[in-house]
Amino acid sequence: MASNQSDPSLTRSSFSPSDTAMLEALVPGYTLISRFFVSYLQIDPTAYLQYFVALAVLSVSLRYIYNSVSGFFMQHFVSYAEIRLDDELFNHVMWWMSRQSFMQRTNHFVAGVKTNGYWSDSEDEGSDEDSADEDSDIYDFMDDETEIQSQANIISRKKYKPLKFTPSQGRHFFWYKGRPMLLERQQQSQTARWALYNERLFLSCLGRNSSLIRELIDEASKEFQNRDGNKTIIYRAQRHSPGDSFNWLRCMARSPRPLSTVILDKHEKQTLVKDMRRYLCNRTRRWHSNRGIAYKRGYLLHGPPGTGKTSLCFAAAGALGLPLYLLTLNSNALDEDNLYTLFSDLPNKCIVLIEDVDTAGITHSRGKTGTNRSKGSDSVARDTEEASAEDDPPLDKSEKDGITLSGLLNVIDGVASSEGRILVMTTNHADRLDEALIRIGRVDMQVFLGYATQENIKDLFTSIYMPMEGDLPNNDKAKITTKWSNSHSTEKGRNDTEKKEKKQKEFWDHLESLRSRIHPLAAEFASIVPGGIFTAAEIQGYLLNHIDNPELAIEGAEAWAQVLQESKRVREEKFA
């Protein structure tokens, strides 16, 4: 009888079969669970079901109340700012956050060899290099054995990049100016593929006054920009992954190149930079606006390869303190929509550099699409002859990829083109460009950079071998001596210091002697190397092989020039 009472099949349920079927549909496995509780625990779940329902209703209600109250509190008593990844400010804030003290205490962070994964240059790498360079210069005053060991230590130390830590996904609390702040890093991944670059930052603080958040963002942005000093910031048109749109991504910050190091006629360099300065003046902008003239300026730098076209543009950007934006038209993934977007995102004052514009097939014929970029110059010339000189052929609507010359011209000089920027195009063959691309209004000045003249060769030799301030990180001899004296207080240390001082004096005497002899040496080198034959890059490459010995460079100049001339002659005959 007792065994019959414990049999699950004899247990009577307070629910009808239809109710049990409904529970089974709502809670899969309800029947099995119910039998388990009745058989082994002597508990009928149906007797407590109303309590479970009440608990579930209470949980949902509490969650609803919490969301409503927290939403109301966040809306009326909390200020927050949203920063998106596609804005450069994201990098500024992330860099600033990585340098705060709370990042040393947090246990949720992203570790890497960069400050984060969204810009390539690191502010610490430059300081490491400067420190290593300073040590290397001091090692010049050591004995050979000590110098070899010290250089080995430098190489070993520079093999490892310093680790950087940034906040991970989630919430991070920290203090700023005595007030609590919250940083929340979110990653949006609604798409099927991994959305690595779809991130957002949220900065929030208590109170309806958002001035504290604005101060933090302003401080982060200023510190990020101040770390560059007078460096030239270089951006490149890139996309994060296939299928994404093109954006300007910061790729590096380089020390400005002096215009004096660019081998070009001084008058032409001064004319170019002076014209750019005049264009950037606010008075020029108002003048264009009052007369309804588009506020744009274009330059074409043309000449043989290696004559310094890109170097001149980079030096001009450094002299004017402008960022440099690099763009190539050879990418098949770059279409006209992306090109319009890139130009519309340019700041008011910057330099846009389109290198080797003649290599993009679109610049030969207005009616051809970007699919013709892979054709040779002869094929492109035939296409140009076949195209109508006055009317553009209809474009194939199915071909969405690539850029047409008409699209490029509209971006440069169309109604919707951006204003305030300086456009610089470089080419090795200016005669291959369509006349519409280089007409006045689109290209306002053309600068030809040819082979190095006798005067250019002198200037190049002088710029390489002339001792300059800053060649040594520490030009004060007393400071270097003091540094070594403090680190060597023993008798052996004092002897080493005396040797270093002696070598240091010999080194400075060598620099002074070279400074006084540099101009006669430059004239002698220019008399050996013929002018109008070699490019500045070729001469510079030769001189860099004898960077510490100008006399040796002069001795081998004649043989080097003959060999290079012969190789050029053979190459010309081969392609004739």
UniProtKB/TrEMBL annotation:
Protein keywords: ATP-binding, Hydrolase, Membrane, Mitochondrion, Mitochondrion inner membrane, Nucleotide-binding, Transmembrane, Transmembrane helix
The entry's cellular-component GO terms read: mitochondrial inner membrane
UniProt-listed InterPro entries: AAA+_ATPase, AAA_lid_BCS1, ATPase_AAA_core, ATPase_AAA_CS, BCS1_N, Mitochondrial_chaperone_BCS1, P-loop_NTPase
Q: Where in the cell is it found?
A: Mitochondrion inner membrane
Q: Where is the AAA+ ATPase domain?
A: 295-453
Q: Which Gene3D superfamilies match?
A: P-loop containing nucleotide triphosphate hydrolases
**Membrane-spanning residues:** 21-41, 47-66
The UniProt GO MF terms for this protein read:
ATP binding; ATP hydrolysis activity
Provide the BCS1 N-terminal domain boundaries: 53-262
The record, for SUPFAM superfamilies, names: P-loop containing nucleoside triphosphate hydrolases
The ranges of region (Disordered) come to 364-401, 477-501
- Major site of localization recorded for this protein: mitochondrion
Its recorded reaction(s) are: ATP + H2O = ADP + phosphate + H(+)
**What's the protein's topology in the membrane?**
Single-pass membrane protein
Indicate, by first and last residue, each region the UniProt record lists as having compositional bias (Basic and acidic residues).
489-501
- Similarity section: Belongs to the AAA ATPase family. BCS1 subfamily.
Name it: AAA+ ATPase domain-containing protein
The organism's lineage is: Eukaryota, Fungi, Dikarya, Ascomycota, Pezizomycotina
